[in-house]
Design a protein that fits this description.
The complex is a heterodimer of chains A (about 150) and B (about 375). Chain A is built from 1 helix and 11 strands; from the N terminus they run αβββββββββββ. Chain A is mainly β and about 150 residues long. Chain A is globular. Chain B has about 375 residues and is α/β, with parallel strands linked by helices. Chain B has 13 helices and 8 strands. An 8-stranded parallel beta sheet of chain B has the order 1-2-3-4-5-6-7-8. The longest helix of chain B is centred in the middle third of the chain and has 22 residues. Chain B is globular, with a radius of gyration of 20 Å. The chains are: A mainly beta (about 150), B alpha/beta (about 375). Chains A and B meet through strand 6 of A and helix 9 of B.
Chain lengths: ~150, ~375
């Protein structure tokens, strides 16, 4: 997947941020039959960090990428490794636009599975090696100084 | 593709005689004597020294006495067949139902092993002049590849530009025996740029050598059987892997690339190994936007020396493993010891359509020529 493709998809993705919480969120614990869980206090979840939380029977990776929160399943599509326990960083990009020079891009937006190194673009859930693979994402937002996720 | 031919009452059954056969690998006898008049000075004087070397000692490479084979001749073996004139070649190819043939050198198959950059570039220029003057289109259906000497990529690029509109030239031969660095290296960018601009395909071709660069340390094998099993396939594998992992098919998306004289069964093997490694190390090849097999399936692969499995259906399976029906091209390797008759492909249990494609039509696409061998991109 090219840098441009991912960038385009990122802008079209509705993301929650501390400044602009999603409008369709409810205050109760049960909305539309879906459960919501508090992940952490906002003050304990600074930009550049991520954590794996158990929500019901699922494990979800929650990421604070430069103030925007994203949540992905803690499950790599490759061999079911604990994806979201992996390292978050950028990655190497190279294309005609970079004049075929290797450059560092997507800083803080890439999570790498600790098992075999499969990379995913956190804001879109897109697998870099196989762009046709896209992880589902969970709704995540900030409310009353708490980071919440809906299953 | 179906495994068995569907019987048809309504259609004339294909025979080898009425199917177009394009032979993508034929070798002509490029002796020092023949090339001498076409060679620049001072290297013409080197060929003059070699001009009285008897044919029987003209093993590849005749062009450097110091690089001869270190191995015993095949005990009791015959001298190799050679093709000396276009007329001889036309008659011999017609006898095996070949309509169009693409010529490669014989002695200069090992040009990449020559250590002198200027000598190699001069030999390539001489060979290119010689085939255009003496061979290409001199008989019906005889077309040629010019040599791109890897020792001097800029000189090779100028040769490609020079012959870009030559009616008898349809491709660029990339020598692989002993080549260093491998063909994915950035030093060859001028060659790929020129080839893409000229709309001429590049064809990688190897030959068995013993040479100190990977993967040519074949002195460890005791037999030619062992060396020959691995030499071509290792060379094609190494160069294909190198070209994929340096992004040649991404950087030159319109460049048509063919791999010759290594058979077909290595293709699914190397494709699957690359796809596996890609999962873990994609970051090293960030220019790839698809898995390696995506690009490999767009390469062309010549059949010779074609696999002859005990169960002929295995050959069909091998081709299916890399979606090769549109990418496999027939090659005889005439007049070499291990040449293949087109019947070998024709009699394999492919569908009639797949046979027509692999025997001729895919090669028309590779070389951008019509069924009479006329270039379509002049």
């Amino acid at each position: 997947m090219s840098q441009e493709t991912i960038a385009q998809e990122t802008t079209s993705q509705t993301t929650a941020s501390p400044e602009s919480p999603s409008s369709n969120q409810g205050s109760g614990n049960q909305v539309s039959g879906k459960k919501e869980d508090v992940v952490a206090r906002l003050s304990e979840f600074p930009p550049g960090t991520h954590r794996v939380v158990k929500a019901g029977r699922r494990e979800i990776g929650v990421f604070n990428v430069d103030g925007n929160f994203y949540a992905l399943p803690n499950l790599c599509t490759h061999q079911l490794g604990p994806l979201c326990k992996g390292k978050v960083s950028g990655t190497i990009v190279c294309s005609k636009e970079t004049e075929w020079k290797l450059q560092w891009g997507f800083e803080n937006e890439i999570v790498t599975c600790p098992w075999h190194g499969m990379e995913y673009h956190i804001p879109t859930g897109t697998c870099l090696a196989f762009p046709e693979i896209r992880l589902r994402s969970y709704e995540v937002w900030v409310e009353n100084e708490e980071v919440k996720v809906r299953l | 593709m179906s495994v068995q031919e569907a019987p048809s009452q309504h259609r004339t059954r294909d025979t080898l005689e009425n199917v177009l056969v394009v032979d993508t690998d034929v070798h002509i006898n490029d002796t020092p004597q023949a090339l001498m008049p076409y060679c620049d000075m001072p290297w013409q004087k080197s060929l003059e020294v070699l001009s009285n070397v008897p044919q029987r000692t003209l093993d590849i490479p005749a062009f450097s006495a110091g690089l001869g084979s270190l191995c015993a001749p095949f005990p009791g073996g015959p001298e190799g067949r050679r093709v000396h004139t276009p007329q001889q070649l036309r008659e011999e190819l017609s006898a095996i139902s070949v309509d169009i043939a693409v010529l490669f050198p014989d002695q200069l198959l090992k040009i990449a092993t020559l250590p002198q950059k200027d000598y190699a570039a001069a030999l390539a220029r001489a060979y290119n002049r010689w085939i255009v003057d003496q061979w290409c289109l001199k008989e019906k259906g005889l077309l040629g590849c010019i040599i791109a000497a890897p020792q001097d990529p800029e000189a090779a690029a100028r040769e490609i530009e020079k012959y870009a509109k030559e009616p008898g030239i349809v491709g660029i031969y990339l020598p692989c025996a002993g080549v260093e660095p491998l063909w994915g290296h950035r030093v060859y960018n001028p060659i790929f740029e020129a080839a893409e601009a000229a709309n001429l395909p590049v064809l990688l071709h190897s030959v068995t050598v013993i040479h100190p660069v990977f993967p040519w340390q074949t002195h460890q094998f005791d037999t030619e059987l062992a060396r020959h099993t691995l030499a071509h396939t290792f060379s094609m594998s190494a160069n294909l892997v190198d070209m994929i992992t340096t992004g040649v098919p991404v950087r030159y998306p319109n460049l048509r690339i063919a791999f010759t004289e290594a058979g077909l069964s290595w293709v699914p093997f190397i494709m699957n190994r690359l796809d596996k490694e890609y999962i873990e190390r994609r970051r090293e090849v960030p220019f790839l936007t698809e898995r390696p097999s995506h690009y490999i399936k767009k390469f062309f692969f010549a059949t010779q020396p074609i696999e002859e499995p005990e169960d002929p259906r295995d050959l069909v399976k091998i081709v299916e493993l890399f979606d090769g029906e549109n990418q496999v091209i027939f090659a005889s390797d005439w007049p070499h010891h291990d040449f293949d008759h087109p019947l070998k492909l024709f009699q394999a249990p492919f569908s009639p359509e797949a046979k027509r494609k692999m025997l001729g039509e895919n090669a028309l696409r590779l070389f951008n020529i019509d069924r009479n061998g006329n270039r379509l991109n002049l």
